[in-house]
Description:
Blueprint: E1 3-4, H1 7-14, H2 31-39, E2 42-49, E3 52-59, E4 66-68, E5 71-75, E6 90-96, E7 103-114, E8 117-128, H3 131-136, H4 151-157, E9 160-166, E10 172-178, E11 185-188, E12 191-195, H5 204-211, E13 214-220, E14 226-237, H6 240-244, E15 256-268, H7 270-275, H8 289-299, H9 305-315, H10 319-330
Antiparallel strand pairs: 1-14, 2-3, 2-6, 4-5, 5-8, 6-7, 7-8, 9-10, 9-13, 11-12, 12-15, 13-14, 14-15
Helix pairs in contact: 8-9
Amino acid sequence: MSDVDSIAGLEAILGKTPPAVNLKVIDHVDATARRWLEASPLMFAGFGDAGGIAITLGGGGGGFAAADGKTLAIPLAVLDDPALVMPDASFCSLFLVPGIGETLRINGRVASVADGRVQVAVEECYVHCAKALIRSGFWSADRQETAPTTIPAFAAAACFMALATIDAAGHSDLSPKGDPAGSMAHIDGDRFWFADRPGNRRADSFRNLIAQPRVAAALLIPGSHDVAILRGSAMLTDDEAVCATFAVQGKVPLLATRVDDLAIERRPSAALVRAALWPAAPAPADIKPAKMFAEHVRLNKDKGLGARIAGAFASVPGLMQRGLDKDYKDNLY
């Protein structure tokens, strides 16, 4: 087994994160992100501390979470596991909007828990690429009344996963993973395995688990209201035989992750029931992820040469969308 246990080893396989990738990250919730929250009926949320990271789902009508600049407010009642919320806990999240492949990521720290609400001090806000949801067929699923009853069968049928990680300094991240059923994850004995696929190239989750291997994840079968929640200790590998088991369309992933010390529970999610995701509603006509990318580049505080070049690229009408469409087509696997 060829484990990857250093940042140098990770970058030797994936390459370094292109500086331009970070230009889409802003430190507040802007008007475009607030509109996203207004339309989002589902979130995945991670809460971390010195002991590791945990994950839960939150769901309701669009706008159940609201933001005002540097603060994100979430009612505790929308969370499947409100007991996870503690003051000063690290916070990471993904917000989904029906019909849209991209996800909104908001990270920060729990500032307060009072009057039935959690207030999050926002540190990062950005739009993540659509590849995970495209690969999973997330929004094309029909409502499913039943799901596999055993944990291994549920994991094999899962198409989407939200992975929560935390680094040694206590900053957490939530990353979407997606693949056709049978290709994303599987359980082998007392180990859980999943593949890495091309994404936004920030590789936050992998950098985090190298520094601090405790992870948490939520597995979904699109169309079902059941979820599998897991926690464990993760390790990356580039073992060719392992990676080959996750090949899709003849493409073998560069990395796979195994989770040891596995604890996993399958259960119904009240948040998914309230979110009523399937069949998916049409995407809101006024939410354009490519325009959000461009706006966040403009709002980024980095004003160096690279930022100015990226800003000029993003300002050309339609150019950002064409670039995204080409990337989603050519680099899905």
